[in-house]
Amino acid sequence: MSEATETAPAKKLHNPLHVTIAVIAVTAVCAVMLHHFEANPKYVFGLLLAVTLGMLALEKVNKAILVLLGSGIALLLGFSDANIQKHLTDAVSHGGDSAHSIPSYIVMIDWGTIGIIIGSTIFVTLISRSGLFAWISVKILKASKGDPFKLLICFSGLTVVFSAFLNNVTAMIIVGSLTIVACKKLKLSAMPFLLAEGIYTNIGGLLTLISSIPNIIVGTAAGIGYADFMMVAGPYCLIAFVATLYLARVLFKIQPLSSDDEKSNAKAMVDAFDEWETVKDRKFFYMSACVLGAIILGFALKDSIPLLKDPNIGLEVIALMGAAIMLVIYPTDVEAVLNEVEWTLVLFFLGLFTLLGVMEHAGVLSMIGEWLKGPLGSGEVKGPIVMLWSSAFFSGLTDNIPLAAVLAKVLGGFQEAYTAGQGYEWFGDVEQGYSQLLWWSLIFGAGLGGNFTPIGSASTVVAIGILKKEGHTVTFMQYVKIGAIVVLVQLILATGYLFAASKYTDLLKQKNPEGNETQVLPHDNNSSEGH
Amino acid sequence: MSSVDQFASVFNAAAKTIFQYKPPVLKNTLIITDLESTAADQYVESAKSFFAKTKGPWDVLKKGDFTTVKDLLDIVGNKKPDLIVTYRHLHSEAWRWPHSLGEHLDVLIQVTEPPVAIMPHPDREGVPEHAMKNTANVMAINDHLTGEDCLVNHASHMTLSDGTLHLTHIEDDVVFDRYMEVISKIPEIDTDVARETIRKQLLSEPSAYIDSVEEVLSHELPNIKVIKHVSHGQQLEEYRKSIDEHKADLVVVKAHDPDQQAMNATAYSIAVELRTTPLLIV
């Protein structure tokens, strides 16, 4: 999400001395607690996790640096504790002889997620260079005929679609830039449109398994396929789209044009946009469109295509193949394109997965699971509601990625315990769709909560950054007054939708490859199954 | 291609300025002269013949009808013409020194709304052979032609139905070089790339606009030929060269600048210097 930094207010650099002192202090305190006072490791590592997540929430230090430091300390402490060291060593024992063994922190990483991030960044960057997204955007702008209300519908729809197939920040940058240019031409205020688009990126971010990072983490942990994900999320996105459109029209007082003169002037303004001006090389444009279509089809029909059907082939393989094909057909500037890979995000995930891997072996995630067992297992109505609303609330306040990663690990732990016959029958009751309800509540909560505050999602930060650059300041409270209403409506709709889908349809029941309903398979984030 | 600025640039480039055809209504024409009797009548006839596309009614002010600038403004205010036809240095001998427009015309152009046609002075010699006959070759000139629909509409309205409309846009090299000099001192900007891309973009916009004028006029005024002149150079010199080279019968320029009391600098220079070619100031 490096793009967000270009429009967001400049962040202060961290103080190296303060960070060094903090790292030494945390390491020393944890080491003393662990070895001198022989404290229970799960509390010591729990403290380390809390400090790391707390620092992440404060956003004082780059998140990649922070989790890499956290995971480094966790590994050092883990190898210094005999019990945890055994778990960590066990984790690598399947690697064959010692000369070819895989370090434990490599096994802890969800390489599927990393592959999807790297692959999709490369193909999205290259397809962007073809002008395809800009071309589509101008076409959609023209379809609005310059009428403010139709413009709201068109830009919102475009944002949802782009967010679903690109990442939210890129979608916001493309549609946001066009909004600024179009609104200047049409002499309209860009503020309502940009704020609505910020909200719509989070709806679009729910649509597919690869639309957002929390979707990838939770969806793959839950073993939900690309097509199944869309089948569940699609109808909700449509409902939320219409409801949010109504809210946006009321909240921002957007009215359609009334007189024929106004309509014809507005139409002339948008007709003056030349979509082909955004395309420099038509051959590359058409090839990019074909590759994008093939990638989307590959994701959607993965389980039906014989070559991709193998469960060991994950979505990351399709993303990386798409990236490779795009690099072949766009041979110039390969290094510049590779530099645009979101390395901060990649390093963040390497650190986060390692940190959570150590926490799992130290028993911290089981401890959190025990705490959450009460509220989440409090009933088939209460549990999912707690998950949906609390994850939405915390996602609104801070980064939803660590939240989704921790809770996905916890739910994965419930799943494993149920499958191993260690209780948790309430969770594994697939007939009632309870476990799936919890997984989906987490996906919806983590996705929708970002609309609550202006810092809740990177795309909203970009939208507000664009507005600031154009001379419109949106204060925290000004945004919350709008965001809170929107989130409230979207969460009420999500609650109703998930329960209705669970009770009246088979959507939330996991299907095996033959299409029969079956129990959810235990999922190990460290294996490639289920991606 | 990831930042807002990059995408905004792409969309800004895609947002073309399209010409909108809206011909001016030029019916009531006021001819102002400081001549008397026969000389005045001859001048009026030649003006009527030159602006044959303007059907009238025609109104004429002669020597005795006004003296001061105030007199003239009062009469123009009462008559409310759609077009004023006159020449430089009314009630003055200063036309012999080509350094100004004369007090009447100076004020008239800035104060009144209707376009003002400035004809060569009746006593001036050296008027080219082709001049003052008709408006077969009309040239609209501006240092920022893009979006100047009013200018182009006036120019196309004045062009004979089978005539030629020249649309001329000259990017000023003096201004461009000044900016390039500054850019050459900024290490973050590649000077060669900046020179090439900025020049290309500066010329592509008026070029695209003239293309849209040609497209629209091909439907509205199908027999008029539109010729594009888009280049860079020393503005006044290039304008003069273009006017001479294409034997322009009438040059149309924009004079009003909303940010100042004085006339637009380029238009003023042209109005002062091009004394043998009829001008239409809009």
Give an account of the 3D structure.
The complex is a heterodimer of chains A (531) and B (282). Chain A has a domain at 111-338. Chain A is built from 25 helices and no strands. Chain A has helices at residues 4-7, 16-36, 41-58, 63-80, 82-92, 104-107, 111-130, 132-143, 148-165, 168-186, 191-204, 213-222, 226-252, 260-271, 282-300, 315-329, 334-339, 343-361, 364-376, 382-397, 400-419, 425-428, 434-448, 458-469, 476-504. In chain A, helix 8 packs antiparallel against helix 9 (148-165) and helix 13 packs across helix 25 (476-504). The longest helix of chain A has 29 residues, at 476-504. The radius of gyration of chain A is 24 Å and the shape is globular. The two termini of chain A are 22 Å apart. Chain B has one domain (15-281): Rossmann fold (3-Layer(aba) Sandwich), CATH 3.40.50. Chain B has helices at residues 4-14, 37-50, 69-79, 103-111, 149-158, 173-183, 191-220, 235-245, 265-273; strands at 29-32, 58-61, 83-87, 116-119, 137-142, 164-172, 225-233, 250-253, 279-281. Chain B has a nine-stranded mixed β-sheet with strand order 2-1-3-4-9-8-5-6-7, with helices on both faces. In chain B, strand 1, helix 2 and strand 2 form a beta-alpha-beta unit. In chain B, 37% of the residues are buried. The mean pLDDT of chain B is 88. The interface between A and B is medium-sized, with 34 and 17 residues.
Question: Which features does this protein show?
Answer:
heterodimer; A: 531 residues; mainly alpha; 25 helices; 0% strand; globular; disordered N terminus; B: 282 residues; alpha/beta; Rossmann fold; 17% strand
